[in-house]
Amino acid sequence: MCGIVGYIGDDRAVPFLLQGLEKLEYRGYDSAGVAIYGGGKINIVKAKGRLSVLAGVLDNNKPLMGTLGIGHTRWATHGAPSDVNSHPHLSENEKFAVVHNGIIENYLSLKEYLGKKGIEFQSETDTEVVAQLLEYYYNGECEGKILDTIAKVMSKVEGSYALGIICEDYPDRIFCVRKDSPLIIGKGDGENYLASDIPAILSRTREIVRIKDKEICVLTKNSMDFYNLDLEPIEKETETIEWDIASAEKGGYPHFMLKEIHEQPDAVRKTVSPRIKDGRIALDEISLTAEKLRNINKIYFIGCGTAYHVGVAAKYTFEKLVRIQTEADVASEFRYREPLLDENTLVLITSQSGETADTLAALREAKKHGSHVISIVNVVGSTIANESDDVIYTWAGPEISVASTKAYSTQLAVMYMIAIYLADLKGAISAEDYDKYMADLQALPEKIEETLRETEKIQYFASKSFNANDMYFIGRNVDYAVSLEASLKLKEISYIHSEAYTGGELKHGPISLIEPGTLVIAFASYGKLFDKMLSNIKEVKARGAVVLGVTTQGRTEIESETDFDFYVPEVSDFMLPSVEVVPFQLFAYYVAAMRGCDIDKPRNLAKSVTVE
Ligand code: F6R
Questions:
Q1: Cis peptide before 199 (omega within 30 of 0)
Q2: Ligand 1 atom 9: the closest Cα is on which residue?
Q3: Which ligand 1 atom minimizes the distance to the CA of 607?
Q4: Mutate to test the pocket of ligand 1, among 257, 304, 584 (most ligand atoms within 8 A of CB)
Q5: Ligand 1 atom nearest residue 306's Cα
Q6: Helix or strand (DSSP H, E) at 475
């Protein structure tokens, strides 16, 4: 996720661009840059680091005076944060400058194609192929026709993009297009604006036009013209924004946590789809040869907090699919317990920030013993990503809320992909199972969307529970893994005491905590153990518990044993945590909201724990 702004008018462009980028820094903040038209050419200034670094360079060394420009704040995807990988990107002869939000999935093949034509690339980014393609087609096949060139490039690139484009030959125009990434136009008086999100332009205008997928917009200071891919003009409606700036930054949501919960379908889609080629998982990031992978005889899953809970779910998944010995551990224990590691051990490290001190120490311990480390990380270029043998990035975009939500969902999706990939490699699953898992994996975003549509039910249950002093989450197998995460979410943001137990452990101690009125949330979706969970539900009901039962659609037998029920869509059983967690992220959120808690910044917690 990155932020784009653009300005065209009579004022100097740089101050507006910097102000707009500041409002978009929540979308990414590892580097920033601007491209300004002036003196007959495109001038670019960009810098690694927060926006203030760019502002400092522009103030001190390189003031740019032009009145047309585009700017970008980056959340690195392809290529670590650096000056050269920052946007805007220029084409080889500096005719085009481009800012981009999204991922060009086929950039490698396009880069190879252009490389064969002698075009040299400066950066490691996917975006640079767009700048190079524009110049290539503009000078060649499209014979200097700018709109034909843009349409041609759109027909070549796959993936998601919002693009702001300027061309040396058009000193009075900004061109913009989008597909699956947001982009809006702001209408001013003798000036017009471009942005990824509304807050960037709210200081100047409340009149906006939303660009839709595969539409092209041409902006001048006094006009905005829209075209479809056949270059036929289209009419667009103007919208008036009524929100204030503070709520707009959260996209209209009252908290980042709620926004991030709702971003999960898209985040999972972006994480999974670039890694599926011709219906098969292509994990190009894994450098181990197939032979070495076949020799792996043990896998450790390591992380902290939510990231550790992903490892617990993965343990069940890998044992079932890959038929391999596994262990899941919290990093702070693993690093000091003298684990048995060698070159046939695979260590899968999970971390949203990529900077968690204990997780990093666990990674170093594993590498010291010659084990291969694959990390699943959200922040590109982070220390864990850099020090791992291989890194598989989750494309969740910046997670601002301290309570992790979309990182968990995307980490799970990556675990499923690795498990299916290894199971297939080892011949541990049949071709039919492979196809079924692939279909379910690709359907996950819609299934998550389905659970989000049940928000009202969850709000109702939250309204019945928010005064509780204690809550217990129970489940078996992956239903236990998700119980751990649901319980953590609740306690960290609502401060209600809560615990998670396996259903089978209840009678070995925890059941003594159940008294009349105690709230128990029972996950009973894992088909094979449904009857066992019904017995556990009966046990706690017999001691007076109030039970919310969670199971898959159609298993209505649960209703006779519980007080409330919640149904989740059917998926392959190891993928259940993905659909079960979402309603309980919402549950924690609404309980915390009803208790008046500071949801995005819970007490005593920090987003990135870089100390032991
Ligand atoms: C819980 C939460 C924490 C993190 C943990 C690991 O909502 O956010 O438990 O999951 O601190 O952080 P990362 O994933 O950055 O290593």
A1: no
A2: 305
A3: 8
A4: 304
A5: 10
A6: strand 470-475
> What per-residue confidence (pLDDT) applies to 246?
62
What distance in angstroms lies between residue 590's CA and the mean position of ligand 1's atoms?
A: 20
- Ligand 1 contact, 498 CB (< 6 A): no
The response to whether residue 600 sits with its C-beta less than 6 Å from ligand 1 reads no
- Give residue-wise pLDDT tens across range 296-318: 999 999 999 999 999 999 999 99
Beta strands 325-330; 298-303: pairing state: parallel
Q: What does the DSSP assignment read for 164-206?
A: EEEETT-TT-EEEEEEBS--EEEE-SS-EEEESSGGGTTTT-S
Cross-strand partners of 345? 298
DSSP classification of residue 228: -
- Separation of alpha carbons 334 and 270, rounded Å: 31
Identify whether 2 is a catalytic site residue: yes
What is the per-residue pLDDT for 62? Answer: 67
pLDDT in tens, 162-189: 999 999 999 999 999 998 788 999 999 9
103 DSSP β-pair partners? 160
Tokens of 199: 């807050």
User: Rounded to the nearest whole angstrom, what is the distance from the C-alpha of residue 404 to the centroid of ligand 1?
Assistant: 6
Torsion angles phi and psi, residue 268, rounded to 5? -65, -40
CB of 147 closer than 6 angstroms to any ligand 1 atom: no
CA gap 233, 225 in Å, rounded: 7
Which residue's entry shows tokens 């000078």? Answer: 139
The model's pLDDT over 447-491, given as tens digits with 9 standing for 90+, comes to 999 999 999 999 999 999 999 999 999 999 999 999 999 999 999
Tell how far the Cα of 488 is from the centroid of ligand 1, in angstroms: 11
Torsion sign, CA atoms 317, 322, 327, 332: negative
Report whether residue 552 contacts ligand 1, using a CB cutoff of 6 Å: no
Q: Would you give the distance in Å from CA 205 to the centre of its chain?
A: 30
The percentage of the chain sitting over the pLDDT mark of 70, rounded to a whole number, equals 98
